[in-house]
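PROTEIN DATA CARD
Card holder: RNA-directed DNA polymerase
Chain length: 608
Origin: Striga hermonthica
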Amino acid sequence: HAVTAVDPLEVSLASGRKIVTSAKVSDLSLFISGRVLSTDAFVLEMRDFDLILGMDWLSFYHADIRCHDREITLYLPGDESITFFGSRNRSSPHVISMAKATKLLRRGNCQGYLVSLVDNSQKARSPHDVPIVREFVDVFPDELPGGPPNRQVEFSIDLIPGAGPVSKAPYRMAPKELQELKSQIQELLRLDFIRPSVSPWGAPVLFVKKKDGSMRMCIDYRDLNRLTIKNKYPLPRIDDLFDQLRGACVFSKIDLRLGYHQLKIKESDIAKTAFRTRYGHYEFVVMPFGLSNAPAFMDLMNRIFHPYLDQFVIVFIDDILIYSKSQKKHEEHLRVVLETLRREKLYAKFSKCEFWLQRVSFLGHVITQAGIEVDPSKVSAVQNWSTPRSPSEVRSFRGIAGYYRRFIEGFSKIALPLSQLTRKSVKFEWTDRYESSFQELKRWLTSAPVLTIPDPSRSFTIFSNASRQGLGCVLMQDGQVVAYASRQLKPHEQNYPTHDLELAAVVHALKIWRHYLYGGHCEIFTDHKSLQYIFTQKELNMRQRRWLELVKDYDCSIQYHPGKANVVADALSRKVRGDLTYVITQQSPLIQEFARMQLQAIDALPIA
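Structure generated from the sequence above:
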């Protein structure tokens, strides 16, 4: 059968990985119980199965599946049926205890085999194995070659007026830690990262165990940080960075090797980095970890990659993401970035870099051509999050939840009880109300939808809603969710009449998504009928007049549709995670609601 090209189709695997196919076989013949049936099939890279029959095919033949009997009956046109059987003599794995296994082996009743499983997908490669990268092996050394060169940016430590040196006695350490301390100091001296010091400053040293069991030396710079004037160099908003990725389908990610150590400290500020140990007094000549002015490194990276930002490069501190709309373009873009690193004598850690990806994890998100979703590793952390036992633990959980609030419809309403629990005036008592909010946030985060990357050249649709608990809105484009937004009502807003609250929700949407909406056309749907006449309403209070002036700055129309505004958002398919071979998208009964409101419905794709 001939294989034909089709528009790219993305299929989700049970592991969360996605496969993109653009090949299809039409009228594929299937021989089942002596009969020939046909189907159209998409070509996928599958190892364990020759063919997966999708819901469309099974529905066409009215398949009756009886799992217990391992039987499937297909009903053909003309009242004829076919029944075929699966394997019934499969033996399930039998697990025995180590004691029983030892006893059987001693008796000689069986043979034992020691099997070692190796995950080849995680096998370490070298730069020589990667196209384009193999031309820049010197950018990926096993260790930094020494102190960094003079750069256009130096790390500085400016103190608040009147601040003087702070020096603390070294912390006591275990023998193993002392041995590690001596070893790491010798290594830092060898690389010219530190030098002996006579500074009046002195911070203590401590060790933190890393995931691989090794120990990381950390300098306790908390006192110095309190006396430092903070660098106000702006860090970019994460969602603004992702907006540049529209249409990208090939990605590479580069992580610098000890990025901070590749930036020199201003000579006059070196003494402030001094640290005290049992083996001497030392100071850093390169930027150490633990100081509060990390944005200085962002300044350096932005200067270096300025010509390519928002073109094919995203930089966040020492992480670099390269994105392209084709394989050929990605060759050019990757070569430009690696040439820049070589010229600037910046070095990357190959084991933490990834190249030529269709799906990439970056800054806690997973990015594909289809859109943006929450990183599964973060989802796992949320699923295993134990019940908070103090206000600080509540803040930690709410912090990670807030980072992904654009994925959560009605975030402020759901998180309201937890927000109240962190107030100083509220006694910490974990009740069912807080547990319900905690579990609902976990549920939303672990089933967050894939958000589309917006196209600024196309129009947007907003669904807004207001209640006595807060304001909520959904930004959509071509029937797909771009982002959710919500906030709690301020005390004075709780007295607003319903009409004003609904208008406040519209204003909130226009303000928070101004960078998307200004200069383009958008439609706003509300479930408050009188709001559609706001532009022609004659009698307005001062608040409404002020808001109307803001609304008129946008090319927008306000339309009414009955029912809750979030019905549309709820109708969108959510990402399913489970033990299925392939994830099957369910058709929602609310697809009709999309059609009624003249929105482009998202039909479930057939899984082949």
